[in-house]
């Protein structure tokens, strides 16, 4: 069960606040995104706490017309985990589970501004993620996802960007997953990498949709969920045993469109259809960055800035395996008018996936 305290980075185990444990790979993370309705501008921020590495880091970027301006920061954690500031980047919990803010003050690196997030619905706790590689537990974590609206102002290279009810998403996750420098010694027995991840938070005028799937090599979802959540406070509606169909852009594993189908508790069918547009590569938020990946040691304090042109990057390079696409969406529920909306579809696809024909 989620509580107000779960909005703060003070967890010790991959469950809502209860008992404490110890684990080198424990992390506690915020993630945020916001996007203009036409898809031309995208904002993302992440802040992570790594208690047993003694580190806190944060990443912020703005992508305009395919070009990302990024700011990364890292510092020694110290004893106070409630101080969610890493140099020029700060996350503020204004009202737990309802309102948060992100601030960045790095004009010398081309980014500054203050943004506030207001939730459209209560956060949804996703099924607990537990994943094993042979006898080893690689993932054991809890995450909640929440869709909302953004207000505020950014300056990108001195040019103002106003956020006026931009839609977006934020999540909180905590638990165990590989962080920091990876193991230097190979693990035995060696196993080929396999990972199939889709995550599609989507906005509609009167509801939001939470969808994700982790598939095994056969295409079976070992952690899959699709939930329709009314914005008027009504009860969430789960799709029973949702089926996922994906089509890919020619010559790549990048998703071009996806469709999620299932049945509601009252027996009516429902389909979420997503059409992918602009790609946003997630190294700008630290994911799989070769130097500024999550939990990497940079001394007592360090700040770094960089720029990347996402449209010039090779789509099949491993560096681009983790991405989000801005989506146009339709939601069809039997007996109701078709709804149009938009959101993002995140993907990370590695190794075999029989349902996609990958061996």
Structure write-up:
By secondary structure, this protein is mainly β. It has no helices and 23 strands. The strands form 2 sheets. Strands 1, 2, 3, 4, 5, 6, 7, 8, 9, 10, 11, 12 and 21 form a 13-stranded antiparallel sheet that branches. Strands 13, 14, 15, 16, 17, 18, 19, 20, 22 and 23 form a 10-stranded antiparallel sheet that branches. β19 (255-263) and β20 form a beta hairpin. Residues 17-21 have low confidence and may be disordered.
List the helices and strands and how they pair.
Blueprint: E1 26-35, E2 41-50, E3 55-64, E4 67-76, E5 85-86, E6 89-95, E7 99-106, E8 111-119, E9 124-125, E10 129-133, E11 136-156, E12 159-176, E13 195-199, E14 202-203, E15 207-215, E16 221-230, E17 237-238, E18 240-248, E19 255-263, E20 269-281, E21 301-309, E22 322-333, E23 339-350
Antiparallel strand pairs: 1-2, 1-12, 2-3, 3-4, 4-21, 5-6, 6-7, 7-8, 8-11, 9-11, 10-11, 11-12, 13-15, 13-23, 14-15, 14-23, 15-16, 16-17, 18-19, 19-20, 20-22, 22-23
Characteristics of this structure?
single chain; 359 residues; mainly beta; 13-stranded antiparallel β-sheet; ten-stranded antiparallel β-sheet; 0% helix; globular
CATH topology: AttH-like fold
Q: What oligomeric state is this?
A: single chain
CATH superfamily: AttH-like domain
**What's the helix count?**
0
Number of strands: 23
Shape, per Cα inertia axes: globular
Kindly state the percentage of residues in helix.
under 10%
């Amino acid at each position: 069960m989620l509580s107000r305290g779960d909005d703060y980075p003070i967890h010790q185990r991959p469950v809502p606040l209860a008992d404490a444990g110890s684990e080198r790979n424990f992390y506690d993370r915020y993630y945020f995104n916001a996007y203009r309705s036409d898809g031309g501008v995208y904002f993302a921020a992440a802040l992570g706490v790594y208690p047993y590495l003694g580190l806190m880091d944060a990443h912020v970027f703005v992508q305009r017309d395919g070009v990302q301006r990024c700011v990364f920061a890292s510092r020694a954690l110290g004893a106070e985990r409630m101080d969610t500031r890493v140099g020029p980047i700060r996350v503020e919990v204004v009202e737990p589970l309802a309102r948060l803010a992100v601030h960045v003050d790095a004009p010398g690196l081309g980014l500054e501004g203050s943004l506030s997030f207001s939730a459209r619905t209560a956060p949804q706790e996703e099924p607990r993620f537990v994943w094993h590689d042979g006898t080893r537990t690689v993932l054991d974590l809890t995450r909640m996802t929440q869709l909302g609206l953004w207000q505020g102002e950014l300056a990108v290279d001195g040019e103002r960007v106003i956020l006026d009810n931009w839609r977006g998403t934020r999540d909180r996750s905590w638990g165990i997953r590989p962080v920091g420098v990876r193991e230097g010694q190979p693990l035995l027995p060696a196993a080929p990498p396999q990972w199939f991840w889709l995550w599609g938070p989507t906005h509609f005028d009167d509801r939001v949709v939470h969808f994700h799937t982790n598939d095994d090599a056969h295409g079976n979802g070992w952690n899959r969920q699709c939930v329709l959540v009314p914005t008027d406070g009504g009860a969430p509606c789960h799709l029973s045993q949702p089926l996922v169909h994906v089509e890919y852009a020619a010559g790549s594993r990048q998703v071009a469109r996806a469709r999620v189908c299932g049945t509601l508790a009252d027996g009516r069918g429902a389909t979420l259809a997503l059409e992918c547009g602009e790609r946003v590569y997630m190294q700008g938020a630290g994911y799989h960055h070769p130097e500024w990946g999550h939990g990497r040691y940079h001394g007592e304090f360090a700040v770094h800035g960089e720029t990347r042109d996402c449209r010039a990057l090779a789509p099949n390079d491993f560096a681009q395996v983790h991405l989000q696409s801005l989506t146009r969406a339709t939601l069809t529920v039997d007996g109701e008018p078709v709804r149009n909306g938009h959101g993002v579809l995140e993907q990370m696809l590695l190794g075999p996936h029989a349902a996609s024909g990958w061996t």
